[in-house]
Design brief:
With 174 residues, the chain is an alpha+beta fold. The protein contains two helices and eleven strands; from the N terminus they run βββββββββαββα. It is 30% helix and 33% strand. The termini are far apart.
Length: 174
């Protein structure tokens, strides 16, 4: 899910706490669906109400924040960001894009750059260029965390297999 603030001159993608609105799916697994697709134009009318236009069929309807919206792949609600005061956002317009999970994964696979260190050590350099620099940093941080978790799991499996092997051999000898 991406959020883009529509301005008079340009559009700016907003991420995380920068966005005054947030989509929540009724079934959280929906956000990882490979069938999820759609684009909605949002205009904030008041701190409690907004107008949603479906970019695919042009259908426009006014909703209250927290009211369920039907989507073919899974119903969702639009909530205000509690750290933002929506009275300052009245009249603001946003574009919300739903993209299939596999498309997002492939996009990141193509954007990430991995290279070896120039000094010949075992250090890898990771870089990622994104429209939202903070999102790129979070992505790389999470990638490194997952790598470290996998490494710990692999080490534990090797230790367990080695211990089992030694114990079996000791059982044969004694």
């Amino acid at each position: 899910i991406s959020y883009t603030r529509i301005g008079r001159i340009k559009e700016i993608e907003v991420f995380g706490k920068e966005s005054p609105i947030e989509v929540k799916f009724i079934n959280p697994a929906t956000s990882n669906s490979d069938k999820l697709y759609g684009q909605y134009h949002i205009r904030i009318n008041s701190p409690t109400q907004y107008t949603l236009s479906d970019a695919l069929n042009g259908e426009e309807k006014t909703y209250n924040f927290g009211q369920k919206i039907n989507h073919p792949e899974g119903d969702f609600i639009l909530l205000p960001n509690p750290s933002k005061d929506l009275k300052y956002e009245i009249g603001s317009e946003f574009l919300i894009r739903f993209s299939p999970f596999i498309s997002v994964v492939n996009s990141y696979k193509n954007k990430i750059q991995i290279s070896g260190s120039s000094d010949g050590s075992r250090i890898l350099n990771l870089s990622l260029v994104d429209n939202v620099p903070h999102r790129a940093v979070l992505f790389i941080d999470e990638l490194v965390n997952e790598f470290n978790n996998d490494l710990k799991t692999d080490d534990a499996k090797i230790t367990q297999a080695t211990s089992k092997f030694i114990n079996e051999r000791l059982g044969i000898v004694t």
